Amino acid sequence: MSILEDIQAEIDGHAIVLFMKGTPQFPMCGFSSRTVAALHEAGAKDYRTINVLDAPEIRANLPRFSNWPTFPQLFIHGELIGGCDITLELHESGELSRMVAEVLAA
Question: Has UniProt tagged this entry with the keyword Metal-binding (predicted)?
Fold first, then answer.
């Protein structure tokens, strides 16, 4: 399986996937930390995270796959939501909570 197929399998296999630097317990950048905090505040507790610092092939290829240049990258129901700024905007508007609630209800 190619790395792009691996990335697609992760996105297809989990309702919420966060490609980030570090882990939710030990984020390795402020953007990843703020994204995790927004997800938790929106009610997401059980979601897939991939530490791109431990996965150099994913780190190198995900920007090409998603057409998004930076990390973190949040996917919900197979769709790229965006990075930290967009996630925070969605959280502040209440939209992120609605999206997480839809995942929990499914």
Answer: yes
| pLDDT beneath 50, residues of the chain | none
Domain count, the chain: 1
Residue 30 φ/ψ, nearest 5 degrees: -65, -35
Q: Is 18 helix (H, G, I), strand (E, B) or coil?
A: strand
Tell me which residue range forms the domain holding 80. 3-105
pLDDT at 106: 85
Q: Tell me the DSSP string of 19-78.
A: EESB-SSSBSSHHHHHHHHHHHHTT--S-EEEETTS-HHHHHHHHHHHT--SS-EEEETT
> Is pTM, for the whole model, over 0.70?
yes
Q: Please state, rounded to an integer, the average pLDDT across all residues of the chain.
A: 97
Q: Are 75 and 81 in contact (CB under 8 A)?
A: yes
